[in-house]
Amino acid sequence: MSEISNHVKEHSKKIYQLTRGFLNGENGSELYKRFKNVIETAAPFEVMIAFDMIMKENYPIEEVKKVVNKVLNFLYKALNERVSLTPQPDSYLDTLVRNNEIMAEKLEAIKPMVKAFNKNPGDDHQKNELKEAFRELLVFKKHYVIKENLLFPVIEKHLPEHRCLQIMWSFHDEIFRDLNELIDKLSQQPFDIYEINHLFGSVFFNMLAVKFREEKILFPVVLEHIPSEEIEELINESIELGYPFYTPVTKNKNRSVNLESSGLIDLGTGKVTVEQLKLIFSHLPVDITYVDENNTVVFFSTPPDRIFPRTKAVIGRTVQNCHPHESIDVVNRIVDSFRKGEKNVAEFWFNMGPKMIFIQYFAIRSEQGEYKGVLEVSRDVQHIRELKGVKKLLDW
User: Fold this and answer.
1) For 10-39, what is each residue's pLDDT tens digit?
2) Domain residue limits, the chain
3) CATH classification (class only), 92-241
4) Model pTM?
5) Superfamily for domain range 286-385
C-alpha cells in the first residue's frame, strides 16, 4: 500500500473500523453518526482496501457477508452518485455490464410471476412457468465464471488488496445454490411457498447487489488501476468461455495459435514433439491441472468437454485464489499433507446434473521423493458407473 495516498489510507481505515463495528455487534445508528463523513464520501478503491483488511483477519465468511451488506447499504448513495470512467463499447467490461442489464430485466420480469404464483399456488401452469424462468437465470453463472477465471487473476496480479474478491465469489456460489434449490422446491409436491418466497428474495437481492458492486466498486477500480490493454486481452477468452446473454462482435474472435513444434522432448518412454504432446493432453478424456511446489498453477489441459472452466489467466495464479473462500481450508489441508509426505492422494465425487464427477489430487514427487506439486485430475465417470457385463467385440 506504499503507493496509496494518505487520504485513501485514512478513508479505508475508517470504512474498515465501520465494518469492524458491525462485526462486533455495535449499534448501526451510532456507527452511522460516528462515520458519517466517510459514509457520504466513500470511493470504490477505499471500500476494496477496507474489505481486504477485514478478510486478513479471518472472520467466518458468512459473518463477513452479512456485515458487507450492511456497510454497503450505508455507502450506497456515495458510491452510486460517484462519477467514474466508462468502459468502451463492446469492450470486456462493457460486455459484462450489458449482460448485467439483461439479467436485471429478467429478474424484473419474474416479479409479477412470483406475485401471481402467490395468489394461486395450486396453478401448475404458473408454477412451471416460474420454474422455467428460474432455469433461464441459471445461464448467468457464465458471467461469474468469466469474472472468476479471467478478471480476478488480473486484479490479483496488480492489486495486493484483492482478498475482497473472495467475498464476491462466495456470493456467486450462494446465488446458484439458491437458484438450484428454488427449481428443486418448485418440483416438489407438496411445496413450501414460504421457502420459495424466501429463496427468491435472496436471489433477487444478491444478484442485484453483486451487479451494483461490480459496476460501482470493482469495475471503476479496474479502469483506474489496471492497464487497459491487459483488460482488453481478456475479451477473446471470455468469448470462448461463453457469455450468458450478450456477446460482443470482435475481429479477434478467431485467433490463430502459433504452436512451437521444433525439436523432440524425451519423456523416458519415448520422444514426442511439442505439438504431439499438446495433442495428447488435449485428447485425454480428463481435465488435468498441475500446481507446482510453490502453489502456483503452471499448466492445464484443454479436452473438448472440460468439466471445470480454465483460462490462460489462471497460469501463475496461486491455487488458493482459484477456489471459493469456503474451499480454501480443504485445499490447504491437501497441499500441506502432500508437502509433509503424510498423504499422496485425495479423492472427491459428487453429482453435477446428469454427470458423476470424480476428482483426484495426486502428490507429485521427484525420484528422490522431493515434493514437486499437485496434479488435479477430474472426469465424468457416469458412463463408467453404468457399465455392466462384458464387451470384447467392436459394435460401432
Assistant:
1) 999 999 999 999 999 999 999 999 999 999
2) 6-81, 92-241, 286-385
3) mainly alpha
4) 0.73
5) PAS domain (3.30.450.20)
